[in-house]
UniProtKB/TrEMBL annotation:
One of its GO terms (biological process) is defense response to virus. Residues 357-476 form the Type II CBASS E2 protein domain. It catalyses: GTP + ATP = 3',3'-cGAMP + 2 diphosphate. This is Cyclic GMP-AMP synthase. It comes from Hymenobacter cellulosilyticus. GO terms for molecular function: 3',3'-cyclic GMP-AMP synthase activity; ATP binding; GTP binding; metal ion binding. The keyword GTP-binding applies.
Length: 480
């Protein structure tokens, strides 16, 4: 069963709206708010609009859909009882923004839509609410007012979220699946509700998604219904035709069948990833063309030794048990933002570096060290702890600075320093927490730096499979 958890975590990041587009969305939202406010001040001064961003932006479940567009919902609220119809109030908002972009605004049933060059759009639902009422009223074109409370839904969903953010990620995966399907699928709101009421946390997103798909199928087979948990508590599936219902179950059954194969049968991660890509779209990353389960088992055997304090480092810079190499010393990995000067300055740095050169080369023949310009540079090749290729390593040790360790080749993933433990300033590895150890010229590369490098490679390769750092580490805020 090829572990694809890391691929799903990367997919989650790939679904995020790019920062440049987020900035444009924020700017456009402010411009629209200003335009609507000015319009009402001039033409309808008794109506003073207030605004509230709602929908998937507030829930954290917004995604880039397959054509790279996205949307934002910005509610327009009036805190008074209108003396005009819901359609008239909608029209006033429409008149304020109808020519705001080169593409004319759309006056839809429950909102005004402003489109920005097929890049994104902003929906403007219109509400009124009185102080003594519990819920706002949504304007519906040619029909009147209906109870609707986006704020209540946001509050509800935030209470349901798990601490690790898995529910939010699963909602994004479901929305991407619906977007990738060739036929009409349930709305993002509907999939959000279905995800919450059928969600069971799992240590792996691929396993959690498969379980969720099966639970949704059982849920909707019992009763084809998805009731909003908040106002107006309507059935989000009530208007689906029998044909649309059949199409949904056909797509769901096909997805479950491939998910079963990916999780239960497929050992090659690349083959498993192609099964997931078929349903989730081209933003789902390709996996490794190897048996990642066997690799993970090998890495976990080393991780157990490390985490139990029974690890030692071999002459080839691999992990073994005590008594067969240099004993690994206790430490915690870190992901610092800046370097830390030595706590104790050495009086004769040439002697320090000469000593370190001899110790490194005596214990690790794979490394060759050079003394140059009052500094030490060590280079060597280290076999992958998972059994795939080698890493070219460089260690630089300069006066008044802790040693710096770099992976020169192959390229490694420098995306989140808090997750993979490196210094983002120069991508050197952060192998210990300076708060635990004040490095001095009395410390050695051979029994600290290099054994900790061997450990880092084990946990880095595990991270590439699982998306989690499973070694001793200082806690940092992590992305979801």
């Amino acid at each position: 069963m090829a572990n694809c958890n890391k691929l799903f975590l990367d997919f989650n990041q790939n679904l995020n709206v790019l920062s440049t587009k987020k900035t444009k969305l924020s700017t456009s939202k402010k411009e629209l708010r200003r335009k609507i406010t000015d319009h009402f001040k001039e033409h309808h001064p008794d109506y003073k609009p207030k605004f509230f961003t709602q929908g998937s932006q507030k829930l954290g479940t917004v995604i880039r859909i397959h054509d790279d567009t996205c949307d934002l919902d910005d509610g327009v609220y009036f805190l008074c009882k209108p003396d005009v119809t819901a359609t008239t109030l909608q029209r006033w908002v429409y008149e304020a923004v109808k020519d705001h972009t080169s593409e004319p605004a759309q006056w839809r049933k429950k909102c005004i839509r402003v489109t920005y060059k097929a890049d994104y759009h902003i929906d403007l639902p219109v509400y009124y609410m009185l102080e003594d009422e519990d819920h706002p009223h949504l304007a519906v074109k040619n029909e009147g007012w209906e109870d609707s409370d986006p704020k209540e839904f946001i509050t509800w969903f935030r209470k349901q979220r798990d601490a690790k953010g898995q529910l939010v990620r699963l909602v994004k995966y479901l929305k991407s699946w619906c977007d990738w399907c060739a036929h009409k699928m349930p709305s993002g709101l509907c999939m959000t509700v279905l995800a919450e009421r059928n969600f069971v946390a799992n240590g792996r997103d691929d396993c959690a998604l498969r379980a969720l798909l099966k639970a949704i199928r059982s849920d909707l087979k019992r009763e084809w219904k998805c009731t909003m948990p908040t106002t107006p508590q309507d059935d989000l599936l009530s208007k689906y035709s029998d044909e649309l219902k059949r199409n949904f179950f056909d797509a769901l059954d096909e997805f479950i069948e491939d998910a079963d194969e990916a999780v239960d049968d497929e050992k090659n991660q690349l083959s498993a990833s192609k099964l997931w890509r078929h349903h989730l779209g081209s933003r789902f990353p390709d996996g490794l063309d190897e048996d990642v389960d066997a690799k993970e088992a090998k890495l976990r055997a080393s991780a157990v030794l490390i985490n139990s304090g029974r690890a030692a480092t071999t002459a080839a810079v691999g992990i073994t048990t005590h008594g067969h190499g240099v004993p690994n010393q206790s430490h915690r990995f870190d992901g610092g933002r800046r370097f830390h000067p030595l706590a104790r300055q050495g009086k004769d740095w040439f002697a320090v570096f000469h000593r370190e050169k001899q110790l490194v080369e005596r214990h690790y023949p794979a490394f060759r060290c050079q003394l140059k310009r009052n500094a030490l540079s060590c280079r060597g090749e280290v076999s992958s702890p998972g059994g795939e290729g080698t890493y070219r390593i460089k260690i630089d040790y300069a006066p008044g600075r802790p040693p710096k360790v770099f992976v020169l080749n192959p390229g490694i993933e420098y995306r989140h320093h808090a997750l993979t433990h490196f210094y983002p300033a120069d991508n050197s590895l952060c192998l210990y927490y300076p708060g635990d150890l004040a490095w001095s010229d009395k410390h050695h590369l051979y029994d600290k730096t290099i054994p900790w490098l061997a450990e880092w490679l084990v946990f880095y390769e595990l991270y590439q499979i699982t998306g989690r750092w499973e070694g001793p580490a200082v806690e940092h805020y992590q992305h979801s």
